[in-house]
Amino acid sequence: MAEINSAKVSPNSDYFAHESAYVDAGANIGTGTKIWHFSHIMGKAKIGNNCILAQNVFVADNVIIGDRCKIQNNVSLYEGVILEDYVFCGPSMVFTNVKTPRCEYPRNTSADYATTRIKHGSSIGANATIVCGITLNERAFVAAGAVVTKDVPAYAMVAGVPAKIIGWMSAYGDVLEFDAKGYAVDSIGDKYQKISDIEVKKLA
Question: For the segment 105-139, what is each residue's pLDDT rounded down to a tens digit?
């Protein structure tokens, strides 16, 4: 394992951190996770197993990252952000954590930070912005450059400013084309049903 630029590291040392990365004492980092150049992990962060944190990633105190997440270059995860398993964060996408920031009247305690939850298997494109206090439901897909201001349904594809639903995507990553009865099958044979304009479910 590469040398860590920190006086102390997590008791679990079964992860890799590049020599230019800073991992603060107390950070909880899972087995097989890789932390690359110039990244900074604060001491109360929790990161799951087999994640990839690319160059210049910041993870604040009390952030929770699930297993097998991939966080691309130049992404900051501020307190209040929760990523479930298999979440993809594209390059330079942005999370916020305070809805009405003021420099003159700081809002910088845990009580001030809104919770943003990104659920299992969701993907966020490059340069998208996720305004705090919302939920991306399972396997939501956010297009590059979108500004998301409200909850996104499971399997929905959203794009634009503000982001709106433009279609639906399977767990595998296929755009779903529904028939007249509201059913669609993706390229690996998984079947989906469109319940309404704002709800799609995967069938067993």
Answer: 998 888 999 999 999 999 999 999 999 999 999 99
Q: Which amino acid is at 63?
A: V
For the chain, domains (ranges, CATH) are 1-75 (2.160.10.10), 78-174 (2.160.10.10)
Residue 109 DSSP class:
S
Give the integer Cα–Cα distance in Å for 64 and 59: 9
Residues 134, 55, 156: CA angle, nearest 5 degrees:
30
Q: Where is 47: in which H helix or E strand?
A: strand 46-47
Using the predicted structure, report yes or no on whether residue 3 has a pLDDT greater than 50. no
What does 12-39 look like in DSSP terms, one character per residue?
A: ---SEE-TT-EE-TT-EE-TT-EE-TT-
